[in-house]
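Posting this for the archive.
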Amino acid sequence: MATMEDCKIICSIESIDTDWTWFYQGHGSCKKKVILIKSKSGNLDSTDKPVFWCTNCRINVTVVSPKFKLHLVVKDDTSTCKLMMLDTIAKAIVGCEALELCDGSYDEIEDPEDLPAPMVHQSCLVERYICHVESKRSRRRIAVASLERERRF
């Protein structure tokens, strides 16, 4: 199996991979993924504040917020590939916080192809980016460590 090295990719966004959801609920402190805890009946009462399990801290938490986890198909002069962009980097592309697009809902997305307007607009742009990819981020998916817009001269 080939090993991936740190690299830079000068690319354009071709599309958003809708096989994956575009956000996750993250713990307010550590920003890692949380899982909604359901009651024995299977649902939370509408008056109850949702309680989540933080998979990183291993505690119940109530302070959570949506975080971007965009799976993008990008294209350079040679080919296409899929990149995963987490919250800070994805915010730079979409132009707003994930919280603004979720309307305070804790529900998971029913139709992953139903994307918020700012994300649809951004995926259609032909603006080019320089993606700094670090090999230590992920073994199965390519995660972008930093991003900048390409300067045109």
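Strands lie at 7-16, 23-27, 34-36, 52-54, 60-61, 64-75, 80-86, 128-133, 144-149. The mean pLDDT is 76.
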